[in-house]
Amino acid sequence: MSWGTELWDQYDNLAIHTSKGIEFLDKYANFIRDRLAIETEYAAKLRRLAKNYQPKKKEEDDNEFTSHQAFRNVLKEINDLAGQREVVAESLQLQIIQGITLLSKTLREERKKCLSNGTYLQQNLSSQLSALERAKRNYEKAYRDSEKAVDNYKKADMDLNLSRAEVERYKNIMTAKIQQSDDAKNEYANQLQKTNNLQQQHYNELLPEVFNRLQELDEKRTRGIREFIIGAADVESSVAPIIARCLEGMVKAGESINEKEDSYKVIERYQSGFTPPTDIPFEDLSKQDPESSQESHYNNVQSSHLTVKGTISANRIKKRVGIFNIFGSNKQQKIIEACITLKNSLTADGQKEDFSDLPPNQRRKKLQAKIAELQQKIAQETAARDGLMKMKVVYEANSSLGNPMTVEGQLNESEHKLEKLKIDLKKYQGYLERANQIPMASNSPQANRNNLHNGHRVSRHSNGSTEDNNEDGDDQPDDGGSLSRSDSEDNVAQIQNGHNNNNNGSASPESGLGTSHTSLPGSGQGSAHDNAMGEDAYYETEMELLQPLGTCRALYPFEATSEGSIPMNEGEVLQVIEIDQGDGWTRVRRLNNTNGWDEGFVPTSYIECTLYA
User: Fold this and answer.
1) What is the mean pLDDT of the chain?
2) pTM greater than 0.90
3) How far, in Å, CA of 338 to CA of 496, rounded?
4) Contacts from 373-378 at CB under 8 Å and sequence distance 24+?
């Protein structure tokens, strides 16, 4: 069925229908454009979402957990999803939008031509019909005039009063009118034949051709919409397998999460290596020796203000103006330089170079990771150096390829870097070796507490030796060192001593004091040189025993491995007689059963202070 035969009289309706059809095509194009904008915006927001939730640099340590790794994989899949949405948007733009735009333009131009042709045919038919109508009116008028002329002639011929001439005149008029009527009749018949022929051709050939062309255009539009809808679905289908793989990747990422493994990694990260505290033994005061009883009693009344006159050892006390003021100018300068060196030895994140501020287990892991990193850098630098050496050999063999001297500078720089990396590797290997020598249990915050509660008392001196006051008199070996003692501090000690291991008259790297850990200069326990220097160079006055500023509790055990410091056990309560002046050391005092009081310095980070109001 065709529009030309079935809708021969529906020219105006067909023109309206084809116009609405093209408008509908444009409407679908706008729909695709809006969808394309949504796809583009969705892809951009997905990418922004994945970017905003990317792990920050400070969160890199958490990437070892399976949950964090899975989340990172999910973000990657989200990025891939965004890419596929961008592919959909691009395909819709290239395949659908451009196709619709081209089709709409073509349909509008063809429809305009068809309507122009149809309008021309309609005008021709209307003109012929108008001509036929005029010919018919002229024929009707001429026929009426001829009929009237015939009647007039008959009346004149029967009228006896009229002359022969008058009758002849009426006869002539009649003849003329009859001739005019015949001519009009012939013209009308001619126009009628033309009109019928044109009308037949118009409705049977010309106008159906226009209508059929409009039908073809409308069917082309309809077919185009069908293809565009299918094409849009095909675009989605083309990315569906990739999107499915992205979703599968998300599922696999979720399935890769292992809560047990994450729990183990938490242990690996935060395990300090300390042993749990043992049971606190019962103290039977009736069986305890007076000295231990006195010390125990002192620990319970540390917060009381003392007004006893006296000195640490020789009824004299030295006022500490500053921790570095006990040295001469040369030693003070050396200590300042040593502290600058120590400050420079800190890492970018504020940790010590040898990670001695970390618990043993974590320290070992950090050192092992640093060693592995240095070994990798050494391997890379070695490969680069070997490449430069080969390049130099090639240049020396064939100077046209290049100048060997241009490689010489790079080779020297590479050798310098490699030597520096090897020195750092050896240094960190030394750190690790010393860290491995520290016994795990003996460095536990509870280890020294057990020494006090096992029926004997251990006092430690500046040289690292111990005095065991137990009943059988057996010597107790010193434990493997303190967590506060770092290799960076060993470097400070080397600077103070001029890289000499001789401790006579030298300053302590931990406290900066040059005397015994149980006294200040002039107490009788330092060297003669120190005592003489103390008499001449330090502020020394007769005064009451310094009033305590507060009390402190030891958070960790501390071993007095250098002069000027005193040991302490975890949980021990001491008197604070001078607060930290910015050097990281606090001056404390404890009751001593031998000479009354022990006084010296302990690390501020190892104690918790409670100052009096």
Assistant:
1) 75
2) no
3) 7
4) 374/421, 374/424, 374/425, 374/428, 375/425, 377/421, 378/418, 378/421, 378/422, 378/425
